[in-house]
TrEMBL record:
Cofactor(s) listed: heme
Pfam families: p450
Positions bound to heme: 457
Record-level Gene Ontology MF annotations: heme binding; iron ion binding; oxidoreductase activity, acting on paired donors, with incorporation or reduction of molecular oxygen; steroid hydroxylase activity
Lineage, top ranks: Eukaryota, Metazoa, Spiralia, Lophotrochozoa, Mollusca
PROSITE patterns cross-referenced by the UniProt entry: CYTOCHROME_P450
Major place of residence: endoplasmic reticulum
Gene Ontology CC: endoplasmic reticulum membrane
Source organism of the structure: Patella caerulea (Rayed Mediterranean limpet)
Record's protein name: Cytochrome P450
Amino acid sequence: MGWLDIFEFIPMWTWLIILTVVLLYFYGTNGHNVWEKMGIPGPKPRIFFGNILDFGRLGLVKQTEEWKKQYGPIYGLYFGRQSTLIINDLDILKEVLVKDFQHFTDRRETVSRSYVEKGVFFQGGADWKRIRNIITPTFSSGKLKLMIGNINKCGGLLSDNLVMKAKKGETVDVKRCFGAYTMDVIATTAFGLDIDSQTNPDEPFVDNARKLFAQTKLASTTVLIAMIFPFVKPLFKLLDVGFFPAGPSNFFVRSIKAMIEQRKTEDEATRSQRTDFLQLLLNAESDEINDEKVSNGTQTKVIKRLTLEEIIGQAFLFFVAGYETTANTLHFIAYHLAKNPEVQEKVIKEIETQVGNREPTYDEVNKLTYLEQVIIETLRFNPPVVMVNRKSSEDVTFKGIHIPRDTTVMIPIYSVQHDPENYEDPEEFRPERFDPATKKESNPVTFLAFGYGPRLCIGMRLAMVETKIALVYALRKVRFVKCSKTPEKLEYSNVGILSTKEPIILGVDLVNQS
């Protein structure tokens, strides 16, 4: 029997199956040799998935640490079909984030709902620059001073809540406790709302905020499919499917739309008295067109304004980012204070000296320098965002490392901030590292919790003020202490936002007021 006979003997459907398998194999492995060709080390990718499944065993934090030990500070991965370069080298990170920012302005496109992707965090190019310029004034020192009164009110409720827990001898789920506080702060400073999440644990805003970050199978599957089959992203956008679950996402979008409609019915006098984030966005909204012509007498320029969709996107991002990151930071601070009572006592002494029992002002809050060191060290130890990315717009080469156009560069924040080359004994909690009077001259790229360069976190100053005020009110009344449910070592879940597998439970003791 010759080859021709064999071909005739095998049915056509069998040949179709073989052809399909071969085509799928080539599709599933296409591009998985980029780093090998360039001599860049990295774990072997799997067909279709690349290295995504490898994170399932150890989780995002531990797995990247293991790969760094195995392959060095620069190694290549594949997120599905996306070639991704993990960079721990500080010189190259400085190039990417600052010096050559023009070629790394944008982040990698994500699978997001239509309103979410309009947020400044996800935007790129000219739209990112325009939106950032519009919303930056919200976070000026002048605006923050106007917000202090409302933040103090939220701090008072937090203090009352913790005192009640202490008197009853109850333990505290610190993430839920601080999550309610941060939601109250967001609601009042950004949207002029008084929702009182702290006395109402089932308040819809904070309940839906928690659900936004619950890792759902649908969300995980959507992201995975988009990585393996990028051509389906337009379909997901059409179906309005994304990482955040539909229920809580729709709740916030509906709430924001309702607030916008209500604001538009107000008279000019009422609107002019509002200084919150939402009003600033509405003041920058376009009408029929998306431009505004401004003349200075000699020339006319066109300023792009915000669309309604962009306003909703910024407002949604404010809810999401403001709630999760600050609540995360506060609950990790409480954990470190409970484990390091000598640090907690030093913070309390500083609060007594600088603020006493007064309602803290913006200037007094900025004098809490040791408290700031505690916050910064917590952000180093437990950065809310484990890693961020940038996308190269051109072929570039740094220190002999070639980064092809359209490559995702991953900045492993947790790894950089736990590298013994950057911090001595990085697994120890030492606020004194950041004492300006004693710390050594250090490379600013070693601390990336707020980002670095032009895309530095726009809400950084608000987050610091909000965090300090929460701790002032809490530590004037209670001390955080370990209890039988407090973990000695934290285990992190496998998500991009740093969160623990189990809630952090602490005890609270009343401070002796005598």
